[in-house]
Amino acid sequence: MVTGVMMPTIDPSSNPWLQIYFPLALGEPSTPSQLSLQHALMSVAAYQRAYREGKSKQDDMKRGFYHEQEASRVLERFVTHEHPEIQSLRDQCTCLAAALGLISIDIFGPRATDCTTRLGLARRVIDMYQDERSWESNVLSSMLYQIFRCYETVGSTAKVTTEMTTASQDHSPESDDAPSPDDRNAITRMDTNTAFEKSLADARYFILNSSFGVSWRTMSLLQETTKLGTACSSSNPRDMTREIRSLHQRLYGVEDDPSDFLAPVSSRRTIPRLDTSSHHSNDSNGVFLPKIISDELIENHQLAFHYAVMIYFHRVIPDTYLPHDAESGHRISSRDNCQALVRKVWDRLENIDCLTPRDIQLHRGNVLWPAFIAAAESIRVDLRHRALIWFSKAAKRGVGNTLRAKEVVMEVWRRVDRQMYPDEELVGMGPVDWRVVMKEMGHSIMLT
C-alpha cells in the first residue's frame, strides 16, 4: 500500500514516493539496501493507514513497528559492514532512498523520536560514497540528494546552541570598528551563488518545489539563516552585521517581486521513470488538477514557506544586527511586525486547503514546517485559533508528527502568556524561543 499521500506533492508526476522510492525497491536481484527500502515503505504505509482508517489500528501499528525495526537493522548493518565502493549508481541511490525512508518513518510513526539519529545515518550514506558532489552528477541521485539536504536543513532549524549573552544582545552595530576579515569576505560573496544554488543550476533537476513547497532560492536563504543564527549565538555581532543585513534585504525582496521567489512546476520537469522490469510503478490514479489551480497551489505553498523563513530569521537573529525600518525600505521588515508575517503564512496555507478537493490529498504537499513556525510564533488569539483549525485538519491526514508539533506549540503559548503583560501590544515576536521549549520537552521533531 504505497501511495502518494506518504509524500504529498502538488505535482503527482514529481512524487518521489511513486516515481523514485517505489521503483528502486523493486527488481532483481534483491540487495540489502533494497530490502531496507522495502521495509521502510511498508512501515510508513502501515503507520499511515493506522492513523487514517483506524479499522485495524493495533495490527497496523505492530506491522509498522516490525518493518521499521527491520529497515533500520538491515541498513545499519549494510552501512557499517559492507563495501559501498563496488556498488552501482542505482544501488547507491537505493541506499540513500532507504535512509530517507527511515526519516519518513519518524514523520509518520506514533512515537516521539530523535530525528537527528536517522539524519545522521543518511549523512553516513552520503559520506561513504566519497565526494559529496558526485550526488549532483545524475538526475536521480541529485533529486535524492536534494530531499536529504531539505531534511537536514529543516532539522537544523530546531537546534539550540549556547544562549545569547546579555553583552552580545546589547551590542550596537553602529559602534563597530572596521569590518573584520571574515566580514569583508562575506561582503564580497555573490548574493545568489551559494553552493546549494550552484548544484541546482539546472532547473530540470529541482524537485523541492513540488514535494516540499520551497523554491531553490528560499531554501538557500533558509540555509544561510540557520548558519548565521548559529554564529549569532557564539560570535561577536560585529563579525557578521553586513552579511546579516544582506540576508535580511534578500529575504524581504519578496515584497518587491514575489514571482522572483517561485519555482514553477511544469510537465517537462517530471522524474524519469526507472526500469522496473515486470513491476509497474504506482501512479496517482490519473488525478490531476487544472494548470491554473496547480499554479495557484504552487504559489501559495512556496510563499507560505518563504514567509515562514522570514519569521524564523527574526527568531534566530537579534534585532541589534538589523537596520531600522526606514533604512530597510520595506514595509514589514522589523521584528515588531512579525505577527503580520504570521498572518501571511496562515492566509497562504488556508488558500491551499480552499483550493484542494477534500477527497484528494495528493496536492497539499509538505507544509508542516511553515505551519509550525507560524503557529509557534502566533501570539494573537485569533491567529492561534487559525493554527488549531489547521492542526485539526492536518492530523486527519495520518502524519504522526502533526500531533507532536501541536504539543510543542501549545506549551510555547502557555509560556508566552505567563511572561507577557495583559496590556502588552501583540504585534511582534513572543518572549519564548520554541527551540528551547522543544529541547526541554525532549522532542526532536522532523517538521515535514
TrEMBL record:
Q: What is its main location?
A: nucleus
Give the location in the cell. Answer: Nucleus
Name the segments for region: Disordered: 162-187
Which species is this record about? Fusarium duplospermum
Which domain of life does this protein belong to? Eukaryota
Pfam families registered for this protein in UniProt: Fungal_trans_2 (PF11951)
Under the heading InterPro entries, the entry gives: Fun_TF
The protein's name is: Uncharacterized protein
Task: Give the CC-aspect GO terms.
Answer: nucleus
Query: Which UniProt keywords are given for this protein, alphabetically ordered?
Result: Nucleus
